[in-house]
Amino acid sequence: MKAIPQTSSLDSTLALLHEGYAFISNRCDELGTDIFQSRLMLRPVVCMRGEEAARLFYGADGVTRVGAMPWTVLRLLQDKDSVQQLDGEAHRRRKAMFIDIAMDGAAVAALLERFRQHWLVHFERRKEDCDLREAANLILTKASADWIGIPPSRRDDVKLARRLALMIDRTGRPGPAAWLALVSRRRLERWLVTIVTALRDGSLEVAEGCALRRISLDYRDADGQPMSEEAAAVELLNLLRPIAAISRWVAFVGLALARNPQWRERFGQGQDDDIEGFVEEVRRLYPFFPFVGARLARSQDWLGYSLPEGSWLLLDLYGTTHDPRLFPSPTNFSPERGLTWRDLDFRFIPQGGGRPESSHRCPGEKITVEILKETVKLLCGILPLRITPVNADVPLSIIPASPVPAIRVGPDRAGPRSSA
Ligand code: HEM
């Protein structure tokens, strides 16, 4: 067996906070490897990148997500009762429910319709510029809450949008910033528990087939039991939070359109064939999840390295989608690459790799891609908006990343070509 290369420093936590998305790839490049050992928060960790590493994370048995994230990140993103913390048959069953809810063509079309309507209401009569990410976060919150089936009388959309955004914004920041977001998340969970309880005791009625009903009333675990109210609230948040989070990529779509006016012009003229390639390239190029964690429930031999049971592993999602061996000239924006989530491969992995039904790959990729395609159509054709600035930067040291300064949109008095 080969020895796993090691970093020279005792602990790399400060380097990770400093280097952000580039942390794993910087060390892989320095050591000439796709795997190395280090310590984070004084805990031994094995960092990996590339197609074979993704195959281990999303294709092998005995690789669990339990115990693989610091607890603040776990609580903000998934929580202990969520599908991501399940393994084996329990995971497959819960995951099948997510796939039914989030990957069904008619269901995705219904969400898109709500997204379009809320977008048009938001922007049609607006006279002033606004922050694209903030606006999209509110629009997506309204659209997803409608789609899930949460009655408008039981929601405060502005507050809900703020709380959902906070959970994502604060994942990369340990300490008091994350604690505040945790308090905010706890409030959301309590609010969702009251809705699930009202549905179960008959004091609330919602439409057949909506996600709220399917999670709270219809779903049964392998032993025939429904989810607890708390678990149902966690899974409802597992739809609300990530759908609102697509707003971060909406901002990057805005930046990509502003930087590439030739594409904007094509889409403005109704040449829609390449929209999917365009938004898939946005998902590849612009950062979101830097890496995912896993723990080995049993030892594994991986490409000649022995990984003992209990090992804590990190898979470099950002580094893999920027690896020049997999994506030539990886810093170039090239929609012609023709990438698509439908290939279910282990290379293009911004939301995980492999098959979603049998692994922890994200069940929300279809929704994400369709929302981003609709964003392009809205921004370029249906209701053209002016996008500024063209020269925003994307600092990789801040997780999660955003354009700096923020992308703004406003009434386009000179027509669709004016991105300045
Ligand atoms: C905003 C864009 C999104 C990004 C960047 C993203 C990213 C990811 C990633 C990297 C994973 C894999 C985690 C792992 O391997 O442990 C994941 C899992 C998951 N995502 Fe997404 N996601 C997004 C949108 C969505 C949407 C729209 C939904 C809901 C419809 C969703 C629901 C989930 C769920 C429930 C899981 C856990 C799956 C499992 O453990 O089997 N995500 N996501």
Write up what this structure looks like.
Pfam families: p450. The relative contact order is 0.17. Strand 1 and strand 2 form a beta hairpin. It is built from 15 helices and 10 strands. The chain is α+β, with helices and mostly antiparallel strands. It has a domain at 88-290 and 328-411: Cytochrome P450 (Cytochrome p450, Orthogonal Bundle). Residues 416-420 have low confidence and may be disordered. The protein has a 5-stranded mixed beta sheet, with helices on both faces. It has a 3-stranded antiparallel beta sheet with strand order 4-10-9. A two-stranded antiparallel sheet has the order 6-7. The site of protoporphyrin IX containing FE has 24 residues, from helix 5, helix 11 and helix 15.
Radius of gyration (CA) equals: 21 Å
Uncertain segments: 416-420
Q: Strand order of the main beta sheet, please?
A: 1-2-8-5-3
Shape descriptor reads: globular
The CATH class designation of one domain is: Mainly Alpha
Report the major sheet: 5 strands, mixed
> How much of the sequence is in beta strands?
5-15%
Query: What would you call the structural class?
Result: alpha+beta
Counting H and I runs of at least 4 residues, what is the number of helices? 15
What name is given to the CATH topology of one domain? Cytochrome p450
Which ions and ligands are bound to the chains?
Answer: protoporphyrin IX containing FE
Mean pLDDT metric: 95
User: What is the CATH homology-level superfamily of one domain?
Assistant: Cytochrome P450
Kindly, what is the distance between the CA atoms of the first and last residues, rounded to a whole number of angstroms?
56 Å
Any idea what the CATH architecture of one domain is?
Orthogonal Bundle
Strand segment count:
10
Helix-strand pattern: HHEEHEHHHEHHHHHHHEEEEHHEE
Helical amount:
40-55%
